[in-house]
Each structure stands twice: as structure tokens, then as C-alpha cells.
Amino acid sequence: MVQFELHNRNLAPEQVSHAHDFHQLILATCGVTELAMEGQGERVTARRGCLIPSSRHHEYQGDGSNRTLVLDIPVKHLAVLEKGSEIERLFDKPRFFTVPPALNQLTHALAHQLEQCPALQNEIAVLLLRALYMYLQDEPKQVADKIGARCISERLDLERLDAWLDQHLADDIRVEQLAALCALSPGHFHACFRELTGVTPLAYVQRRRLEHARTLVRHSALSLGHIAMLVGFRDQGSFSRAYRRYFEIAPSSDR
Questions:
Q1: Is pTM beyond 0.85 here?
Q2: Which residue from 22, 27, 129, 233 has the least number of CB within 10 angstroms?
Q3: Distance between CA atoms of 242 and 147, rounded to whole angstroms?
């Protein structure tokens, strides 16, 4: 069976500079990583992914709070994969690409599946590669849609919203506040946000609260009650229920 290495990582804030003899796919579920290849630098986020061809030198530095899917792809293994030659062409050159809502949602689901069932990493990796190939193959057909999406994204700066949310997770966050940050009416903001991300604003806020909570659960000694307060839940009970629904594991067990 074809074997790929897929990991759900937290990329640390230390700068790393290297090259390797395999292709690499980088997709983030949250947080930011600064990445540069051959003079081309961008930020890898939930909205922006990266393809790194084999042997290409690159540098990266995470923000310490990211969650990032890193897929290592040995070149020889692509030859025996269905549509392997077409997928190989995706790595003709270093490439950053826009991650659409559907692919972002799949990335979240597969990252969660990988944590639950690490033994399935090869099957998950193949599914991820095929999904990416299908999306990038369809890119030329989506030009008109992208023009419309660009108009939306110019008003909805999701990275700016994320930064604001991260500073106010403990507060009561309302759609009206988010809409005001984008100079949009609440109704228009809600529609544009769902078009851009595939989820409602409040569902997005809840997801961000829980993702930050998981980092604290796993990497801090804070009590669950304190974590619940820091990410905006009224009590530990409601936090634990929401955590279990989203991650399918209780925070106490996850710790």
C-alpha cells in the first residue's frame, strides 16, 4: 500500500530553514505560519495553503497557536496512486493557493479523524490529496465565482476578524459587533460571512473558542473552569458539553 506521512502539528515560533527529498502539502485549521520559498513569502492560514516541491529550500515560522496538517509525499509513491501523474504536476513549482470553505471544512474533519485514528493516516492522506487535486483542477472554471468572492473578502478581512476574536473570546460576542468591524449591516455581514466561510458567524466564533480551549487543555495547567471562563463559556458544565460535542472527547480525557 502507498504510504504517506500525515501529521497534525503545532508549528513553533522558532524559525526553521531546510529542504527535503519529498513533496509537502501544508494546510492550517487555525493560526498563522509565515512561510517563504525562493523569495516568495506568504502566510499559511485556514484560508491559504501551500505546496512545497521536493528539494525546494523553504523557511517557516509558526505563531505557536496554529494547528497545521503537514503531509509528506514521497515522489515515488505518487506513481502508483490513481491520477498520480496529474497530482505530481501540482508540484511543478512552489505554490500558495486559496483554500475554499469546502476544503477548509474537510481539512478540519480530517484533522479530527487523524487525531482519533492515527492508524488511518495513509487513507486520510490519500483522500486529502484527491480532494486538493479536484479543487485545483476546477480553479480555471471558478474565475467568475472568485471575482465575486474577492469582492466579499475585501470587505470581510477574516484574519483581522480572527485577531479581534482572539482578544475577545472571554466576552459576549454579537454578530452586530463583527458586522461593524467590516462596515456592513448585520444581515449583509451574515450572508457574506456564510458565503465566504461556509458557516454562520456564531458557529465560527464557537469553533474558534473551542480550538483555543483545546490548546489550553492540552498545553497548560489551568483548571477546566478557568479555561471555560477564558474562552467565553458561562460555566464549566456548558464548556465540557460543547467540547465533547465538537471533539467527541471530554476535556478532562483530552488532557
A1: no
A2: 22
A3: 37
